[in-house]
Amino acid sequence: MQAEAENELGNLEPAKTLLKKIRNRAGLGNPVSTSKEQLRLEIEKERRLELAFEGYRWFDLVRTGRAIEVMQSCTDVQRTYAAKLTENRLIWPIPQTELDQNDLLIQNPGY
């Protein structure tokens, strides 16, 4: 995540150095990105591979604003469930018991 933060701040070289450490440890080549956008995708891919099956992917996609784009690209219904993901499904509803106990809470949009 430090590499991601450095990249978003426009510090490409420190971000590449951090990504390089991870990739070299795994016996992979150095990052080849030349732009912030390319490096963002490289970091995202590396995080996806490094943390596979640990449950972070969905939250990474929501956090970076790419959940709808990525999930809607999964259209092969023969191999995957392709429900239409909409903006209001990115966050969960606040439980009714919590809303009943706290008048300051407002239900999340779409629920």
From TrEMBL:
Subcellular location: Cell outer membrane
Keyword Membrane: yes
InterPro entries given in the database record: SusD_RagB_dom, TPR-like_helical_dom_sf
Assigned keywords, A-Z: Cell outer membrane, Membrane, Signal
SUPFAM superfamilies hit by this protein: TPR-like (SSF48452)
UniProt KW Phosphoprotein keyword: no
GO CC annotation terms, alphabetical: cell outer membrane
Occurrences of domain RagB/SusD (ranges): 1-111
Name under which the protein is recorded: RagB/SusD domain-containing protein
Organismal lineage: unclassified sequences, metagenomes, ecological metagenomes
